[in-house]
Amino acid sequence: MALLEAKNLGISFGGLRAVDDFNIKIEKGSLYGLIGPNGAGKTTVFNLLTGVYKPTEGIITLDGKDVTGKKTIEINQAGIARTFQNIRLFKDLSVIDNVKVGLHNHMSYSTVTGILRLPKYYKVEKQMTEEAMELLKVFGLEEEAETLADNLPYGKQRKLEIARALATKPKLLLLDEPAAGMNPNETLELMETIRFVREHFDMTILLIEHDMKLVGGICEELTVLNFGRVLCQGKTSDVLNNPEVIKAYLGE
Ligand SMILES: Nc1ncnc2c1ncn2[C@@H]1O[C@H](COP(=O)(O)OP(=O)(O)OP(=O)(O)O)[C@@H](O)[C@H]1O
Ligand SMILES: [Mg+2]
């Protein structure tokens, strides 16, 4: 059984058919790429999968459970976490506190315990600090743990977003153009980190990227969207050699 399956997903904005008859199956443990030109509908697919938009048609299942039309928080709790095309961090919180926000998804204490600083508060806080530091180490951010998120350099903010998403302990991680705005060296380093995250956390990842070479280099499977519809889908090598993809995507 696929970890994520979407069948016949569709949504319109006014007269615009942003996503039409979208189907995808993502097996557990895979690193899967979603590519396509500007405005093809990639981010809209993420918004449908995470409950930001309700699909007009179609079904989404995660681990065999129907999550279609559920709220974003319910979908996150069911096991889908994401990052955004435009970074959305808690800019006034420290780096480590951003990660702890994600950890609260599965580690918590009651309000009373928090206000009265009961023993459980200290126990959970200590555990959260340890887990958050472990995650920050994966992304080379441990020395900036107390830095305000807003003061991090751009490339590190992108990494912190991924760390925070992972802190929710998802089954599926959705990354929307995580390398956007990065220089080539930062991009290569990030791709290595994504590979590492997949291995280390045994994570399933769906990655949106513009750069064909980039996704081709790390993803085993690809879906190409064009004008809201799937143009081509399958093994990376087959997709990248498909003449229709070359024509539509590279304009050749
Ligand atoms: N909330 C909305 N209201 C109206 N139109 C929208 C909305 N969200 C997306 N669209 C439109 O749907 C289409 C697909 O947009 P989407 O952001 O999903 O594309 P994308 O493939 O992520 O593009 P990019 O590569 O530029 O990020 C675009 O024409 C966009 O303008
Ligand atoms: Mg987008």
From TrEMBL:
UniProt xrefs under InterPro entries: AAA+_ATPase, ABC_AA/LPS_Transport, ABC_transporter-like_ATP-bd, BCA_ABC_TP_C, P-loop_NTPase
GO molecular function, one term: L-phenylalanine transmembrane transporter activity
Coiled coil: none
Pfam families xrefs: ABC_tran, BCA_ABC_TP_C
A Gene Ontology biological process term: D-alanine transmembrane transport
ABC transporter domain: residues covered: 4-252
UniProt KW keywords: ATP-binding, Nucleotide-binding, Transport
Superkingdom, natural source: Bacteria
The protein's name in its UniProt record: ABC transporter ATP-binding protein
